[in-house]
Each structure stands twice: as C-alpha cells, then as structure tokens.
Write the structure tokens for this entry.
Amino acid sequence: MFAQTVLVYPALLALLTLGAGLLVERASGVQLPAALLPMLGAAALIALSQLCTYVAAIAPATPYVLAAAACAGFALSGTALRARAQAAWRERAWWVAALPLSCYALALAPVLLSGRASFSSYLALADSAVHMAGADYLVHHGQSYAHLDLRNSYGQMIDSYYNSSYPSGADTLFGGSALLLRVPLIWAFQPFCAFMLAAACGPAWAIGRACGLNRAYAAGAALCATLGALVYGYELVGSIKEIVALGMILELGALVAVRTRWLGVSVRGAIPFALVAAAGVSALGIGFGPWALAAAAVPAVVLAGDLRAGRKSPRWALALLLCAGVAAAVAALPTWADLSGSVHVAETIAATSNPGNLRTPLHWEQVFGLWLHGSYKQLPTGPARPLSYALIALALGAGLLGVVELARRGRPAMAAWLLLTGLVLVALDLYGTTWVDAKGLTITSPIVVLSAWAGVGALAAGAVRVRALRAVAPALALALLAGTLASDAAQYHTSNLAPTARYEELRSVNSRFAHRGPALFTDFDEYALYQLRDLDVGGPNFVFAPPALASSAGGHGLPVELQRAPLRALLAYPLVITRVDPSAAPPPAAYALLWQGRYYRVWGRRPGADGALARTVPGGDGVRACARQQALARLASARRLRLVAAGTPELVRIGLHRGRRPRGWGRQRDGFVMARPGRLTASFAVRRSGSWDLWLQGQFMVRVAVAIDGRALASVEGQLGGNSLVPDTVGPLAVRLDSGVHRLSVARGGLRLAPGDGGAAVLDGAFLTPAGAPARSLRELAPALAAGTLCTGRYAWIALA
C-alpha cells in the first residue's frame, strides 16, 4: 500500500495531468512551455470531474473519463511530444524534471521517511476528513443527496458541506484520480497534496524565468515559492483547496508571462487561461475571483492596446472574449448553476468569526515563507526569532527591488501582476477575518516569494550600480533557499502522522459489516466518517452529532459514555463500535460482541432484543445513587423482571504524580508533557501474582520506551487518538507480575531525525487489568436479594431486561 500511494499514484497523476494538458493545448491551437502542461491538465481534469459529478447518473464513470481525456491528449500529440522530448534532451533541459520531483519528495517527506502509508500533521486540523469522505461520495453518487440519513453524522456532514454549494473541484479531481487506481483515499490524500505542489513548480519556474532569472536561480525560486513555510504548513495539514488554488494562481501568472504565445495567436488561444480561472473557482469558490481578475487585468490591458493600435479588430476581440467566456462557463458549470449558493458560502466564510485552529491571527510577515518554528501558528522562539526576522527583512528588500526593476527593465506585465496580487492580499487583510486572512496569506505567499527572487535576479544582472553588490546575489539566493528548507525541516520534525494500523482496522470493519448500519461510533475520530462510510456512522461527540444521542457525550471531541445514552435512541443502531478500552463502560445487554480487533470492538443488537426497560448508573451522590439502584431492584421484583448488571474490570491505577519525572515535563490535564528526553518512574502494587495487561493513556507520536522493574516491555510510537485534548488508550502490553510492589518506567529518548520526533508526547495515565479480561462481564442479580447489596458492588450500569 505504501509504494502504491506514494509512488504509483503520483506517477498516474503525472500521466493524467500531462495528457490532459496536451489535449487542452491541442484544442486551443497554441503551444505552451512544457512546464505549464501538468497544472493546465489539472485544471482540465477538475472541469471534467465537476461536470461528471454534476450529473449523478454518470458520476461513477468520472475516473474513466479522466483517463480517456489523458489518453486522447497523448494520442493527438504524440509527434509533437516526441519532438519536445528530443529538443529538451539536446538542450540538456531534462534536469528541470528534477525540480518537481524534489518538491514532491520534500512536501511528502514526513510520510516518505516514515516508510508507511499515512498523512501528516494529524490532530492539527480535521478538515481533511471532510474532503476524503466528500471526494469518495461525489465520485460514487454525484451531487445527489436525497437518500442521505440526516439523523447521523455521515449524512449530516455530506449534506452540510456538499449540498450547500461548497467548492468541490479539488475533491472531485482527487477522488476521480485515486479511485482510478482503487487506492484508499485516506492514504492517497497526502500524496495528492504533495503532487499539486510539485505541479505548481512548473509555472513558478516559468515566472522566475520571465522575471529574468537564469535556470539555476529560477529553480531555487520555484522551490522556495512552492515550499515556503506557510504553504508547507498548510500542505501538511491537508488544506487541499488552498494548495490547488495557489497552483492555479501561479499558472495564471505564468500564462501572463507567456501571453505572446496565446493572446494574439487565435481566438481559441484564450481557452487555457479561461480553463485555469474556472478551475480555481471550482476549487476555492467565488473567493478565487480577485486573483483571477488580477491576472486577467494584464492581458486585458494588452488587448486594449492592440485594439487602439489597430492590430486587432473589435470583432476579433469579441470572439476571443466569447470563446474564453464559454470555456469558463462550461468548465465551472456547477458553480455558476448555483451562483447564489456559491456567493452565500463565500460570504459566510469571509464573515465568520470562527478562527478554526488558529488561536491568534497569523502575522503578515509570514507571507515571505521564512518561519523558523515547528508551527506556523506560533512565533519563533530563542535565536530562531531574530534570525527569522533578519531573513524576512532580506526578502522584503529583495522583493521591493525586484518589482521596481521589473518595471524599469521592460517587464511591466510581470511587475503589474505581482503588484495586483499584492493588492488583493492587502484588501483581504483590511476586510477579512482571522480565518480568511490566513488563507489569503497562504495563497499569495508564492507570489511574494517570487518577488523576492526577482530581486535576486536584479542584483545578478547588475541593476544596482555598485558593482560589488553583484556578488550579493548568490549569497542572498542561498540565504532564501536555506531559510525555506530550515523552516520546512522544523515543521517536518513536529509533524504528527496518522496511525496506519488503526485506520486499516477500521477499513476492515467497514468491509466486514458494510450496509449493516447505521452504526454508533463511540471513539472521537472524524476520519472514521470516511473509513466507515458504508455504515452510516453516527458520532455523538462529532461536529455533526446524532441529535438523539448528543447527551451521551460532554461535547465535541469528548468521550462518549454509553451508560448515559437514552436507551430508545441507542437501540436505533444495529451496530455499536467501541475502542478496546477496559476503562470505558460497555454497551447494554441488548448488544452482543460480534468482532474484536486490536483497537476496536463491534457489537450487534441481538435479534428481537427490546433493550432494557429502565437503567441506572452508579456515581454521583452516593446516597441518591444507592436509592436509585434499590428502587430498580424493587421494581424488578414487583414486575418479575430480570435484573442485569455489567461488572467493571479490576483496574490497578498507577499514580504517575507520585513518581519521579524530569523537570522539563510540565503538567497537562492529569498527566505530563514529555517535552524533552527523560524518564518517569512510578511505583504500584498488585495483590496477586499472574499475567496482567498494561495500558497507557496519552498521545505518543514520539518513541517511548516502557519497562517494569527494569524489564523492557515495548516501544510505543505513532499511537495517537482523534483529539489532542482527550487521551488515547494504548495497549495492551502483556507482563507477568508477582504480588507486591513494582516500578513502571516510561522514557523518551534523545533527538532523532525520524519524522514527528518533535510531535505529540503526552502521558496522561497508566493502569493494569488482568490478562484476558472479557470485553463485558454480565451478571444477573436476584432482585429480592439485590436491594441490600447493590450499593456495595462495582458496576458500570444496572438495568432491567
């Protein structure tokens, strides 16, 4: 699966986008630089995937339509493609292909170097869960939502996003391409985002060349533009819309740079520009308009000049605009068809006060792509802070020089485009909210970075009269490139990778129990909406909670307590899926255990089971709880009903706070943040000898060594839950112990170069249970005898049945 997603899938994407780019080139009657073809092809494939999914009946054919378009492009352009390849070989331009390959490898570095299928910056932002589920749904069902069950999380999520004009261009391209290879979207997601950044290298390189940079400088500029700290951070958290949109903005800028190849050649020459603008609208929504208009302004001025000079006739210009308008209208038809809804979505996003995962607004200086910190959401600390701002000052000065020199040295079109996109960013900053500002900074960052590299080109060309300053150009280029790579390395170090084995187990659950739902999912992990998509999942602690069961969780992200769920509402679910966690209460007696894996248990409602007539949960005020239990026992005796109790397993809690720990391990909730290498030791006692299971609670991206009495048990790493604020339960780790006192050791090792070695490391708790303890222990109580003994027993719940 790893090789298929990180190697085979991007190779397929490269063939699809290149073939589609050739097809557009053929249809428009122009020849563009080869570096622009992959992103142009991506724009064409977005248009095709949007049109296919707009008609629900043909949506499942989307992958094959994309493949057919690519094959047509190769078939119609075979001779021209061979001629291009031969020319590139003669000119020794083949090395340029190493540029997108390098970008892809760097963008996907956390996953590539982990050696397993995954996606990065897990726990940072769960929006990618929406895109995975949405991409799968749209390709299989198209824009048809009438059959969704809006009582559950999956149906609510799909309906709330995709049935409300939410931009889906990036999703349909992603889903259509990945499902052609039949790879799980959860593992193809990060390679797709990395590929789109790699494809953006082509237009970035072309813009660099148009700004007067030689090939080496243009390559450095392209890498820095597509891998700047802010862009890299957004790629790591899976901001698929923004990543696709910034590629389209760069493609528009590159088309402005090579406008002489298409603007006056033929009426059809405007098709590529219109197609890319439409793809940006499909991917980002109407909000893409300002960037598209900024790019369109330059060829519009050129065309107006041709009209005034008599080089083009008004009829020809009208035909050109008509052709561009038709292409843009057809390519983004789903967006235009519900224009009012699209505008409403854009207005809602622009006006929202919800900052998402941003506690504070981003800083404007982050647009330069230089930020020496493990998170773009925080300020650099220590020596990294002045160094970051020194690099930003260099980039700012170089950017101002670059724009001025472009205007002075006969490249006013590029200078105008750079300035206009900068004005778009300023307007967003003045009128946008925290969330919108962050998106604007990210999307515009590549253009600002390219402006700084234009300054490098100006210095190298001797734009400054002081001859000695020419030698500054290589040093400035090296500083910008090194600062970008160092910024990315810091984020690589802190990336949290999704737990592969746990999600693969969820995938097997989906296959085993497909279409037997709806299923109640008690874990907090919204990626389960995709992994369990055939079970119509309801998650009481999800953003879209089943209304009837919302009270069983304390809120978004908090644990679900089945013993507190209303029985009638709970029994509406034929399946209940729980984590393997002895500290959590089991489902009621109406459910039987159907399947158990390492991480999850699947419970099925017994045929004909009506469930408990009444139930009580121990806890709260002791006197009142005891009175409720005794009243239930008396009711069972009076009605001659069974009284069933679920026993709680024997738990040996280990008091971590009484142990010894390093000074740098600060408190968090009930546990500790393992912020630096060190070892925690804590004593505990067991009353009997035998086999035990050790369970840890926390978030463990980094490698943690676990030992008891000096004997190594295991190394735990890459074990994360769906919410950084709620401890994940990891285990069991088998150990044999004699009765008496023992010592637990949990140690974090020194610095490693492994991805995520600076990621989550939180130890919240530890406990033991007897080995082989059953998933649920039911005990039938005699009502006549139970009234006086219920209050002294240990039960998760007591119910009538």
